Every structure is written in C-alpha cells, then in structure tokens.
Amino acid sequence: MAEDVNTAVGAGPLAAGRLGFQARAVLVGTGIDVAALGSTDRTGNAPLVVELIGSPLGAAIAGQRPAGNGVAVLFRYGAIVFFDASPAAITEYIRQLGPHVRQPFPSIDQETEVLDIRVDPTGKETIEGNSLVLTDASLGKLQLVADVLAKSVSLAHHERAIESQFERIEPFATNLDHWGRGGRAARELLQHLGGALLAEHRVVAGARIDDSPELLWDHPELERLWARLRDDFEIRERSAVLHGKLALIAKTAETALELMQNRRALRVEWAIVGLIVFEIALTLVQWWFGASGH
C-alpha cells in the first residue's frame, strides 16, 4: 500500500530548479489507528509519513527510489495530508486505509483543504495567495506544512459542527427572555451538550491545536516557517473562537439545566403545599362533621 519513509528525515531536497505540486488535506474520520499500520522509528505523537506509489516527490524524499505517486502524512486525530498525489491515488489510499479509520466520515462530509506549493531554491519562503514558496521540499518542511493543514481541516470540521449547535442559542435566549423558561430549546441544548464537550476534547487532546510540532525540538531553524504558516491559516484565532463558542454552549446548557431543576423543585414545593392544604381541609371537614354531630 505504501512505504514508511520516516527514516528518511535527513534525505536531500528535490533536484534544483522550479517545481510545483499540490498539498491536499483530508479529514477522513475521528481518528486513525496509526500503530496498526506498522510504523517505525517514531516518537510521541509525531505523524506517520508514507510514500505512495508513483511520484517523483515520493522518490526524492525516500532517497531516489523508483518514482511513486506522492507522499501522505497521517495524524492520529483523523487527518491525512497528501503531497503531489493524484486524485485517483488519494481515493485509493483512503479506501485501503478504511479498516484503520475510527468513525469514518462519508466522502461528502470530509473536510478538505488545498495548498499549491512551489519550490524555488533562489526565492524567499513566503505565502503568495494560495501558494506556498519553499526553497526546498525536504521532509521536515513538508511535515510542518502537513501539521498546519491537518489542524486547519480539523478546525473546519468542528467549526461547522459547532455552528449548527451555536445557532440554537438565539431562540433559547429569546424564549428565556420572553417567558422566563427554557422550554424545548433547553432540552435540545442539553442533548447537544455532550457533542460540544466531545468536540472540545478532540480539539484539545486530539489535534492539540495549540501545541508546536515535535519536529521543531530537533529543528528550531524551521520554527519561523511554521509560525508563518500557522498565522496565515489563523490557527490560533480560529481555535480561540471555537473554544469561546464551546464555552458559551456549555454555559447556556448549564443555565437550561438549572432552570429545569428549579421548575421541578417548584413543582415539588407546590405539590407539598397542595398536600398540606388538602390535609388541613380534610381536618376541618372532619372537625365540622364532628361538631355537627354533637
């Protein structure tokens, strides 16, 4: 299916000259069982890099082996970033990877992001529109690009999921303001609270949006490139907005729960009052009939 090329981190860049290829990130599911793929020479949460079959880029990174069809970088939280891979190769690789994907998304629901990459040894590393200019296509730099693209598609997926839940806050707030109770909107928010909390867990513990790649520990000279990519894709800003919406959903659901509990407590209190009144009335009736009998 593919070959592990993590041992080729020190491999040289592509041949000198201008070269253009495309990076495509796809979120295929909620997670990928990377360990089951037989990866080697990896530490911590470093992504798995594999060479697909059929591309000069894959061959160059892997040490001038026969031409392959691109490179794929896999992340545990369900994202795959393809470099210089044809649509057919991407589709086939995702199909082969299917048994190792947790809760796979239908193709229509898969978040994707595309970035054009141009290699210019004499140029300056920068982002021009939707194109990234690199002085070389070493594995380290591609891993940084993959890290940012993978986080971007993960954020996009959660942004879309949370937005539908976030829109429920307005009718609930309106209902609360006019009627002083949550009604059906409160119950719906409670049903989606678990989804919001799960999304936050996946963003924080899974994708680790705010963490720097482990690669920078060994290659601090690449930190400027990673910071530029992170800022261009607004990773931190989008993460902050997402966490803010998640916090608001949780707070709203908590308010709804308190209202429901208060209403239940009030009903219990009224029931107790009703029983007391009934008992008093029953006592008075008994006393009345007893007095009449005398």
Q: Kindly name the structural category.
A: alpha+beta
The helicity comes to 40-55%
Beta fraction of the residues? 15-25%
Distance between the termini: 102 Å
Q: Major beta sheet, specifics?
A: 8 strands, mixed
Output the radius of gyration: 29 Å
Quick check: average pLDDT?
Answer: 74
Q: Give start-end ranges of low-pLDDT stretches.
A: 1-18, 40-45, 58-68
Number of strands: 10
Which terms summarize this structure?
10 strands, two-stranded antiparallel ribbon, alpha+beta, 294 residues, 2 domains
Please, could you describe this protein's structure?
- The chain starts with a strand and ends with a helix.
- The longest helix has 59 residues, at 235-293.
- The strands form two sheets. The protein has an eight-stranded mixed sheet. The protein has a two-stranded antiparallel sheet with strand order 3-7.
- It is built from eight helices and ten strands.
- It has two domains: 17-136, no CATH class; 155-283.
- Mean pLDDT is 74; it is low at 1-18, 40-45 and 58-68.
- The protein has helices at residues 56-61, 87-97, 139-166, 169-179, 183-207, 215-218, 223-232, 235-293; strands spanning 3-4, 19-27, 29-32, 48-51, 71-74, 79-83, 101-104, 112-119, 126-128, 131-134.
